[in-house]
Design a protein that fits this description.
By secondary structure, this protein is of the alpha/beta class. The chain contains eleven helices and 16 strands. It binds 5-S-methyl-1-O-phosphono-5-thio-D-ribulose.
């Protein structure tokens, strides 16, 4: 299922806030609305927001292409900044915008040629992400034994990427090999990416899925029902620390206690080697009403004090291996990540 589609000057985003009840594509022709879609999580998941932002830049270029050259450049700089400000944690957003910014640096070209090149770059970012996911699936499924029972957290599937998925890509590839007995899916409070999106995606694929609430993972691990955990990532630092959806760290601690392998699947675009450790990763704090309400229903006192970090950081010591498109990375992470990327 494609969550981001581009058709001749129009961007179509599958509204993930409406899933699984409605499957609705929204049409975008101006970049500010794309920025808003990223902020409000109509499109979400680290690679998907990178792809959507890249197309946001293309839309901005179409909006401003008739302006005088200098005004065009200023407006494009403004567009890049507005898109950068949408969500702070997933590095794929900044990675994709950096690639688009590089295209804009070609000052000697006609604006029409720049617009063509921006379009090509965004399409390439999308195609490369899909290819990386398929590669990770192929490599990652080799780590899994036949009959495996997997736990996953949040949604790191086709919806969160250009297609196929990172963690769910590995699960998809393993299921194709007939290896998957059951995928346990944490519902993933507060925005329920597990129950709304991952359960939906796996059911569409015919992969066996059991939905559990976040506080049940320990119980099922203790019962021996889970053989491994596979999650995605929003940012991985030079030492192998991983930012992912809030609750991931807790699952990693539980897996460690129960001696269960904990795998992270992430494409090269999720690595931020400019940061040494996870302590440096900016963690997005979201609207408190996401905790106080489910949909339109209040489930807490309207004015209760709330903390709502959208991500946490899992230290590399708790990670058995990181599955990437370039290969599988194990400890010593600092050394092996450096070896893989330089
Ligand atoms: O807040 P979200 O839904 O954008 O968070 C998404 C996650 O944390 C995913 O696990 C991560 O982006 C990996 S997606 C391939």
């Amino acid at each position: 299922m494609d969550s981001v589609k581009y058709e001749k000057g129009k961007l179509l985003l599958l509204d993930q806030t409406k899933l699984p009840v409605q499957v609705v594509f929204l049409e975008y022709v101006d970049y500010l609305s794309v920025a808003d879609a990223i902020r409000s999580m109509k499109v979400r998941g680290a690679p998907a927001i990178g792809v959507a932002a890249a197309y946001g830049v293309v839309l901005a270029a179409h909006q401003y292409k008739k302006l005088e050259r200098i005004v065009f450049s200023n407006k494009m700089e403004e567009a890049l900044n507005k898109l950068r400000e949408t969500r702070p944690t997933a590095v794929n957003l900044f990675w994709a915008l950096e690639r688009m910014a590089k295209v804009l640096e070609a000052n000697d070209l006609e604006v029409s040629e720049i617009v063509n090149r921006l379009e090509k770059e965004a399409i390439l970012i999308q195609e490369e992400d899909l290819a990386m996911n398929i590669k990770m699936g192929f490599l990652g499924q080799k780590l899994l034994s036949p009959g495996v029972n997997i736990l996953t957290h949040c949604n790191a599937g086709a919806l969160a990427t250009a297609g196929y998925g990172t963690a769910l890509g590995v699960i998809r590839a393993a299921a194709k090999e007939g290896k998957v007995n059951m995928v346990y899916v944490d519902e993933t409070r507060p925005l329920l990416q597990g129950s709304r999106l991952t359960a939906f995606e796996l059911m569409e694929e015919g992969i066996p899925v059991t939905l559990i609430t976040d506080n049940m993972a320990a119980f099922f691990m203790q019962q021996g029902k889970i053989d491994c955990v596979i999650v995605g990532a929003d940012r991985i630092t030079a030492n192998g620390d991983v930012a992912n959806k809030i609750g991931t760290y807790g699952v990693a601690v539980l897996a460690n206690y129960h001696n269960i392998p904990f795998y992270v699947a992430a494409p090269s675009s999720t690595f931020d080697l400019s940061l040494q450790t996870g302590k440096d990763i900016p963690i997005e704090e979201r609207n408190p009403d996401e905790i106080r309400k489910i949909g339109e229903v209040w489930i807490a006192p309207k004015k209760v004090n709330v903390l709502n970090p959208a991500f946490d950081v899992t230290p590399h010591q708790l990670i058995t291996a990181i599955i990437t498109d370039k290969g599988i990375i194990e400890s010593d992470y600092k050394l092996n990540i450096k070896g893989m990327f330089f």
